[in-house]
Design goal:
Shape: globular
Low-confidence stretches: 416-420
CATH superfamily of the largest domain: Chloramphenicol acetyltransferase-like domain
Helix content: 25-40%
Mean pLDDT: 83
CATH architecture of the largest domain: 2-Layer Sandwich
Keywords: Acyltransferase, Transferase
InterPro entries: CAT-like_dom_sf
Family: Belongs to the plant acyltransferase family.
Number of strands: 16
Strand content: 15-25%
Structural class: alpha+beta
Order of helices and strands: EEHEHEEEHEEHEHHEEHHHEEEEHHE
Number of domains: 2
Radius of gyration: 26 Å
GO molecular function: acyltransferase activity
Protein name: Vinorine synthase
């Protein structure tokens, strides 16, 4: 078995350490620790039969979440100045990536060669002057399994503190789950317009047996989700499970409502799932799934969300559930965000209201399936800026049902507008 180093880089904290915390004094107990490092290696199997690109996604997620975690554990991103203190200078952690040659993780674990485990570590037991406080090596096996080797200065962390750090890093990675929804491919953005009359017809079709008339946003979201699933089925030859997420504005869902002048990202993610094995959902049912998942984010939910540690736990649990389904093999994801009823067409600087409000073309090799819904100027219509894989987009554009209700990139001079969302 050979372990080949691929890259070495520094991961710095996402936020700088305040000046008054730059000098971290080691207590007497820290100074009495004889060993430089207390190494640990954690092995993870390739449970979802992920390919090499999925491993690259995991690496990106680990790096981003490590950067965020180091902002909380700022001495770990510093430099050992002497036997008494650490300079919290934000030099960062040393992050090494490696490939394991001629060995599968399962084969290695059958009868582990204890002497070989050191190959999964980023440094030796004895610290060299060039070593960082925190040193990490992620090694990829040929089967897609990975190991994470950690060497952090024993002067700062004992076993319990190391566990706390690792669990915090894992929590940040879980909350950074959006990285797992980003895909590789040729992504293109198209602008589609639904006029007021088309949306009213879709609302009638979506009302179904429940008798509940959906909103514009629920209707168009459910319709695009349905048509995207048709494109996915056409591309792969079978219907796959899918995950729909929708960003929800918390301001008016709080009780009492947040001030309209509140700034920051006061949004949360609602999610709905489609399971091929257990469900056969038509258009009305998909719209109803959108409505139900968004309606669950109500005043009670927002109150819990604001409840300190309990709120954080609830956020983490919600995201873990989304990640647990969304990261499974063969699950397609489509995300929605609505700019409707936000008043962008009311922005008047003294020379009249805007003639058009637009998003941008997000075409490129990396992106996620995303739909941005925007009010038109008048008439109860809506624009949908849809970003999909190029091949899937072509199938969506050729869908006759989609063509019957959506127009492709018509002139903003002739288009649509506000209504009740």
């Amino acid at each position: 078995m050979d372990v080949e180093i691929v890259s070495v880089e520094r991961i710095k904290p996402s936020f700088p350490t305040p000046n008054h915390l730059r000098d971290f004094k080691l207590c007497l107990l820290d100074q009495l620790i004889p060993a430089d490092y207390a190494p640990i290696v954690i092995f993870y199997p390739n449970q979802a039969n992920s390919n090499h690109f999925k491993v690259l996604e995991k690496l990106a997620l680990l790096k981003k979440s490590l950067s965020e975690t180091l902002s909380r554990f700022f001495p770990l991103a510093g430099t050992i100045k002497d036997d008494l203190s650490i300079d919290c200078d934000d030099q960062g952690a040393c992050f090494t990536t490696a490939k394991v040659k001629n060995c599968l993780l399962g084969d290695f674990l059958k009868i582990p060669d204890l002497k070989s485990i050191a190959k999964f570590l980023p440094c030796g037991m004895a610290r060299k002057a060039s070593d960082c406080v925190t040193n990490i090596q992620v090694s990829e096996f040929e089967c897609g399994g990975i190991s994470i080797g950690i060497c952090i200065s024993h002067r700062i962390l004992d076993g319990a503190a190391l566990s706390t750090f690792l669990k915090s890093w894992a929590d940040f990675a879980t909350m950074a789950m959006w990285g797992s929804l980003i895909k590789k491919g040729e992504f293109v953005t198209r602008r589609f317009v639904f006029d007021g009359a088309a949306i009213e017809i879709l609302k009638d079709m979506a009302t179904g047996l429940t008798g509940i008339r959906p909103t514009r946003v629920e209707t168009v979201s459910g319709f695009i989700w349905k048509c995207a699933m048709v494109a996915w089925e056409e591309r792969y030859g079978f219907r796959k499970p899918s995950l729909m997420t929708h960003l929800v504005n918390l301001r008016k869902r709080a009780v009492p409502s947040f001030s309209e002048q509140s700034i920051g990202n006061l949004t949360w993610v609602a999610s709905a799932k489609y399971n091929v094995e257990t469900e056969n959902l038509g258009f009305p049912e998909l719209v109803d799934e959108v409505r139900k998942c968004v309606s669950r984010i109500d005043g009670v939910f927002v109150k819990k969300l604001r409840d300190g540690e309990e709120g954080l736990k609830m956020m983490q649990n919600c995201l873990k559930k989304i990640e647990g389904f969304g990261c499974e093999n063969n699950v397609d994801h489509i995300g929605f965000t609505s700019w409707c009823k936000m008043g962008f067409y009311d922005v008047d600087f003294g020379w009249g209201r805007p003639i058009w409000v637009s998003s941008i073309d997000a075409s490129g090799p990396f992106f996620m399936n995303l739909v941005i819904l925007i009010d038109g100027r008048f008439g109860g219509g809506m624009e949908a800026w849809v970003t999909l894989d190029e091949q899937e987009m072509a199938m969506l554009e050729q869908n006759q049902e989609f063509q019957a209700f959506a127009s492709f990139n018509p002139s903003p001079l002739n288009v649509i507008g506000n209504g009740d969302a």
